[in-house]
Structure to design on (488 residues):
DNA sequence: GATAGATTTTTTGTATACAAAGTTGGCATG
DNA sequence: CATGCCAACTTTGTATACAAAAAATCTATC
């Protein structure tokens, strides 16, 4: 993700952006790069994101990076501390609970409408997503699995036709990825991927309520894999560790 | 530059900027000023928000204004069109439906937990908010009424203890204010304020399910006051108007 | 030898300057 | 007289420069 256009642009001083297209798409691409890196756990919670470094890597100035960082902060993927810069957010146990409770309410609540609106096309896309997820998990690529699972849930919600709630679900799924990265148990991860297929089948049969019940159990199962041990909190950390 | 922070201070009383004027709080105050103006319908949907003008009015440079505008855009209170700048968003009928459906799902779903957690303190704050709302509506100040109603719902959701869902509800309430500003019927507005009091009473008695039912009816009532006539969409507008 | 203060260095916050694109008005031509 | 093109003016997009604050390092004194 970090190689191709970066060096090319850095090496050419008079950057002609007419060819590459306007900066908006470029910014979107950079946003996606960072977002993906966070969701896939290549950037770990707590990692500092210095503006200069990012500007350097992506070959844009700090102005653009700041904008992207601000957006990521609003989606709670990074935290912006006033004079200390940006870092990948480390979700607290409370936040994790809130996020999964929210998902349970919204995603389950959406199932009846999804059942009403799902089309063979939607189902096919979702099944292929689920298949890809099972494949990469089978290959041991947990990062890709986490992201594909998030994408599955997000797209499923979008079938409901309610863009606002689908956006919420998408954001919650991104945050869930982060939570899994912190509290997740790699061993037990991915044993619930078959739920996704069962979910699609139920929805295609118009069984919205049973789909909601399954979704609820599914999210419970994911929650159950989390080991909710609150990690260290920077400063008190040292005291707790070295005082005993 | 010319008249620094005069309007900013007038519009946001109680915020202490201090002499050094911690920039963060100042930006927050400006954000609130613009946000309030939009929610209270002093800035009407479609109104253009030129960066220079705002920078001038609030006595900061365009940099800060852009940041605020971007945040407002993410909350869907303003729309940012690529080389055309910012304007107050004009919600479509579809968006309005989505927003109210979302509110119905989330706010109603939250009621049982709110009933479990509400304290006399919470109830008192909410009651005073409701009283203020009834008062200003009685005085004919619809703008303040809309904003106080939004604040009531937002705070009510926050009692649930789920910060994530409360944030969602807050955003939905802000957008609702905008929707009411476009599709609302001033005459029928505010006849449901008594629902708020009844809601608190039910919640204090621990009647979460009945509170959820009332909330559902309440939101239905608000929806019913909307006249869902899709307003003009710029270009086709002229054709439709002048072709007959 | 340790601690507190001061200095240096790094990093963010803000403003301004410059470039590109859009909009508007005027001018010329059919 | 209308229509299409061109030019100026306006407004946003981006980078850079400068200032302020926090972190780190060094020094001096107790």
């Amino acid at each position: 993700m970090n190689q191709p256009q970066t060096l090319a642009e850095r090496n050419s001083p008079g950057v002609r952006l007419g060819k590459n297209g306007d900066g908006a798409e470029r910014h979107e691409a950079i946003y996606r790069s960072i977002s993906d890196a966070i969701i896939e756990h290549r950037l770990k919670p707590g990692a500092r994101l210095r503006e200069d470094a990012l500007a350097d890597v992506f070959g844009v100035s700090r102005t653009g990076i700041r904008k992207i960082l601000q957006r990521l902060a609003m989606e709670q993927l990074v935290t912006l501390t006033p004079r200390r810069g940006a870092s990948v957010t480390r979700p607290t146990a409370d936040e994790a609970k809130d996020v999964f409770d929210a998902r349970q309410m919204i995603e389950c609540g959406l199932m009846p409408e999804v059942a009403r609106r799902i089309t063979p096309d939607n189902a096919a896309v979702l099944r292929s997503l689920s298949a890809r997820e099972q494949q990469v998990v089978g290959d041991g690529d947990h990062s890709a699995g986490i992201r594909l699972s998030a994408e599955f849930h997000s797209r499923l919600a979008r079938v409901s036709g309610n863009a606002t709630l689908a956006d919420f679900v998408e954001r919650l799924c991104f945050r869930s990825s982060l939570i899994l990265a912190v509290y997740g148990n790699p061993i037990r991860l991915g044993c619930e991927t078959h739920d996704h297929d069962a979910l699609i089948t139920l929805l295609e049969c118009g069984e919205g309520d049973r789909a909601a019940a399954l979704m609820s159990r599914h999210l419970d199962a994911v929650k159950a894999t989390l080991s909710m041990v609150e990690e260290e909190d920077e400063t008190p950390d040292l005291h707790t560790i070295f005082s005993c």
Summary: Chain A is about 70% helix and 5% strand. The first strand of chain A starts at residue 48 and ends at 49. The beta strands of chain A are 48-49, 78-81, 85-88. The interface with chain B takes residues 22, 24, 67, 70-71, 74, 82, 95, 98-99, 101-102, 105-106, 109-110, 162-165, 168, 172 of chain A (CB under 8 Å).
